[in-house]
Please model this.
Amino acid sequence: MSINDQNEQKDLMTSAGTANEPSSMEELLAQSFSNIEPNQIVEAKVVSVTEREVLVDIGYKSEAPIAISEFNHKLPEKGDMVKVYIIASEDKSGKPRLSKKRADFILNREKLKEVYENNETIQGVLRRRVKGGMIADVLGIEAFLPGSQIALKNVPNLDQFINKEVQLKIIKIDEDKKNIIVSRKNVLEEEMVLKKEYLKDKIQLNAELDGEVKNITDYGAFIDLGGIDGLLHLTDMSWGRINHPSEMLNIGNKVKVKVIAFDEENQKISLGLKQLVPHPWENIETKYPEGTKVKGKVVNIENYGAFIEIEPGVEGLVHVSEMSWTKKVNNPKQFLKEGEVIEAIVLKVSKDDHRISLGMKQMQANPWLTIEERYPSGTLIKRKVKNLTDFGAFVEIEEDIDGLIHISDISWTKRIYHPKEVLKKGQEVEAVVLSIDKLLHRVALGIKQLHADPWDTIDETLPVNTEVKGKISKCIPKGVLVDIPYQDTFIEGFIPISHLAIPKINKPEDAFDVNEELDMKIIEIDKDNRRLILSVKAWFFSRDKNLMKEYQKIHRDRIIERCGSAPEMDDHDEEIAHAVKDENYGYDNVKYDNVYPDEPEDEVVDVQADELGE
Model:
């Protein structure tokens, strides 16, 4: 403080009295009141404090009020002594005009000037928001902190700073207007420079530093290391699988990170969190030997299998073939869901390739290993039809184990073109276990094997030359197929087109109808191919010719009705139709090996019932 300022302040604080002692009370009062002069600082005693003002006594003839706002949120109590500045000895009401703020300004201005001139920092408290910034309390004086000087970057919400103690720089003092402008930004910039200089010596490759999460993006998080920001990329947060940094971090979190790259020229720092712990695959074969039971979460599902996270950074694959002993899994998403926790067995570990093969089905015993003990060949079962296919019917033997009744194992005698001709989905059927293939996971079942094969004794029960009745089941290019009643079932027979007793017929369907009943005679039994060869022509042999003519007329009329005309018959045709060529009643010994069109063949089937529709 300068000598002149000291003298000025001393003059303000001295009394205005004279060296002569007062001679009376009136003179004493007059002398006291004469000391109350404007533009000086005096001691004042607090008389009372209200919501609007503080009433003080400076020894004048009346007490003076001072507005509450003059005390900067630090109100005195009754009896306290405060310094005030006399603006005027009296106002219109006869009371002194006083100011607490101006007294504070005068008393502290030298300190503020010194701080300003030496570019020093000073502590202040941010009291409230105003237009364009905030008001700071500095040594009891209100100073203006512009919004642009509050932080290094624009801060949209200033309420977070209210009543916060901060370090400030004085950037302007206007003594005439008694205004002070301060900056917090300048302090932060100086601190940043010092921190950067300090950090430059500490930031080295593989150095471990403490920091604070400053910002989070989709690709990572920015970490404030104490003045310098580094990027912690998403892929360097965890050895495990994470989709967004917010799954691990929040803004403001304190973290320890490792410097994994440092570009000093461009001041770019790459940080790592996962690098603080050993790589999870380092001792993987020791931690998870083959046969180990593990528990993990399904983190990804592909067409070929599901990836299971058994610890952060360690995932194993359950291939579709290792999900179930009995079900053929074509779509793993129908079997598992992401986020589901499952148990599995370690099947194989490859440390170099970072691969672990897991099996879910190995958690249970393989039912196919003991299926022959439960269902030996010849076992009779009664189960429901689960599904129908072109080649047979699937029957559920037990949960997730199906057996196949092949179309050729449904009937000994009837030729079946589709299982739906005799079976329905959900129908309960009896069948016998024919064979089991544990390797290919197949069980062959049969219905016809429940009964003896009638073809073993067919030549005794239906010998050649036996006359029979039967209904046409199908017309084919080489003749017609007929069902002949046999015991409680039917046996299929074949009438060659030349034995239908209709000369010059080209298409059997032109003259004959399905379900039409015919009289026939057995002319051959083909046990190897399980066929009865029949003849209408042989049945008419030795019968009245008029009976055959009537039969022929009926079918020729049908040809005319369907085709518009029929080939003319002469006497020679009639003779041929009724002739007996030999002892086989006209059977000409032609081989009929391929008379059945679209005949179903035994197929190699590698499907599951639940994959097929009816």
User: Anything to note?
Assistant: The CA atoms of residues 513 and 614 lie 29 Å apart. The longest helix spans residues 545-563. The longest strand covers residues 164-174.
